[in-house]
Amino acid sequence: MRWLVAAVVVVLIIGAAIAFAFLHKPGNVSHPNLEFTSPTATQPPKPPPKAVVVAPFLWPRYGYDAGRTRFFPNSNNLDPPLRRGWSYHGGPLLEFPPVIHGNSLFMLNDSGIALALDKRTGKVLWQRQVGTLAAASPAVGSGLVFLALLSMNPNAGQNPGNGRFVALSQQTGAIVWSRSVGPGTESSPLVWNQTVYFGDQSGTVHALRVRDGHELWTYHASGAVKGGPSLSAGILYFGDYAGRAYAVRADTGHEVWAVGTNGARFGFGSGEFYSTPAIAFGRVYLGNTDGRVYSFAAHSGQLAWATGTRAYVYASPALEDTPGLGPTVYIGSYDGNFYAFDARTGAVRWTHPAGGKISGSPTIIGNVVYYADLGSKTTAGLDVRTGHQVFGFPEGSFNPVIADSTAIYLTGYADLFQLLPQNGAGGHTLHSQVPTKRK
After folding, report:
1. CB 238 within 8 A of CB 221
2. What are the strands of the beta sheet with 144-149, ordered from one edge?
3. Is the peptide bond before 81 cis (omega within 30 degrees of 0)?
4. Where are the alpha helices (DSSP H) in 75-135?
C-alpha cells in the first residue's frame, strides 16, 4: 500500500510540473543597450587601391561567411524576376545546400553521397558514396572538401552506424584522410587558418588540422552539438541540445563563456539549440526549440533579448544591416510564419505568413530574403524591408539558396536548380514569380 501511495505522489508531482511548464512558458526579454555594436561605428577606412587579382569565387561553408550571417553582399543584380537555367535531378534528400569553389559546386545528400557539379552546366564532375546518412553542408579549403557523416558506408570497411569526418580531394573526390567520430556528426564544418571545426552527437567540438586530420583540441559541451560552429574575432560560438550557448577560443578551445536559457520545460532545463549561430553587431543570434529566438552579447554571453514565436525554431538566422530598416534578424518558425526582428531589441519588424512549417534557414541575396516551406515543399522570396513576397518557386524543403555573382542555386527536395537574371540570354522564363503552392 505504501508503494501505491508513493506512486500516486510521484504522478501528482509530475503532473504539477507539466502544468507549471504550460502555464509558465518563458516570456520575451529585451536589454537593447547590452553590448550592441552599431554597424556605422565599425566601418573600416577604405584601403588604397591594389592591383586586381582574379581569385576563384568562394561560398566555402554553410552560411557563406565565418560568422554564418547568410547574407551575400553586392548582389542586387540577382533580384527577381529570374529564369531557369540548368537543373540537376538527384534522388536522395538534399537537406543542406551546396558550397562553391570557383566553377564547382560541392554537395552532400542525406544518403551520404558527395558530388561535385560544374556550376555553369550542372554536369556531374565526380561522385562518391562516403556514408549512409548525412545532414550537413560540406566545407571547402586548401584543395579539400570536408564532410560530416552520421553513419558510414559498411562497404568502406567501417561499422555501420559509426560516424566519420572525411576530407576529399576537390579535383577527384578521392579520400585524402578521414577520422572516426563514433557518435556521428551533423555539424556543418568551418575551415579557418588551416583548421577545420565541427561538433558531434556526444557534445564534443573538434578542431582538426586541415592537411592530415590531426586533432588539435576538443571541447566537451553539455549536450549534442548539431549546428555548425561560427567564428568571429578568434572566438568560436555554438549551441547544444542541453539548451546552452558557448564561446571558446578558436586557437586553444579554452572556454570564454557558457550560458543556459530559461526554457519552457520545468525541471528539465531549456529547449535545444539545433540552430547554427549567426554573429554580427557584437551579438550572437540563435533559434531554440522552446520557440524563442535568442541574442547574446558576443563578449560576455549575457542575454540581450529573447523573443518568442509560437512553435519550434530549428532555423539559423540571417543577418543584415538592411537599408531603410537597420540591423535586422531574419528567421522562420514551425508556427508557419517568417519573422524580421530588430537586431538590437528583438522587437518584431514584420511577419509573413508562410502557411506551412519553416524548418530550414533563410538566405539574403540582394533585396530579397529567401526561405523554404517544408509543409508546401516550395521556396519563397520576400522583400527584406517589407516582407512582401516577390518570388516563388514550386520546389523546396529546408535550406533554400546560395549564389555567386551571376546566378542563384536553389535547393529543392532532391534537386538543384540554377536561376539566372531575367535580362540574360538563354534559359527558361519563370512564368510566375509567385506560383501556386504544391500539395
Report:
1. yes
2. 139-141, 144-149, 163-169, 175-181
3. yes
4. none
**Dmax of the chain from CA atoms?**
87
Single out the residue of 338, 408, 407, 341 nearest to residue 376, CA to CA. Answer: 338
Instruction: Give CA–CA dist 151/148, Å, rounded.
Output: 9
Q: How far is Cα of residue 104 from the mean position of the Cα atoms in its chain?
A: 21
Q: State the cell numbers at 171.
A: 579535383
pLDDT of residue 433: 56
Residue 20 falls in which region: left (phi positive, over 0), alpha (psi -120 to 50) or beta: alpha
Q: Any idea of the CA torsion for 299, 330, 96, 98, to the nearest 10 degrees?
A: -90
Give 22-55 pLDDT, tens digit per residue: 334 567 888 877 888 877 644 455 555 555 567 8
Closest residue by Cα to residue 149 from 169, 135, 128: 135
Q: Which candidate, 249, 287, 257, 371, places its Cα nearest to that of 295? A: 287
End-to-end CA distance of the chain: 56
Within the chain, which residues score under 50 in pLDDT? 1-24, 41-43, 156-160, 263-269, 427, 431-432, 435-439
- With 0-12 / 13-18 / 19 or more C-beta atoms within 10 angstroms meaning exposed / middle / buried, residue 52 is exposed
Q: Give how far Cα 155 sits from Cα of 61, 90, 129, 169, 358, Å.
A: 28, 22, 10, 20, 36
Domains of the chain: 63-429 (2.130.10.10)
Q: What percent of the chain has pLDDT over 90?
A: 76
What the block records as the C-alpha cell of 385 is: 524591408
Q: Cβ contacts of residue 198 below 8 Å, gap of 6+? A: 146, 148, 165, 185, 187, 188, 189, 190, 205, 206, 228, 229
Q: How is residue 172 annotated by DSSP?
A: T
Contacts of 126 (CB under 8 A, 6+ apart): 115, 116, 172, 173
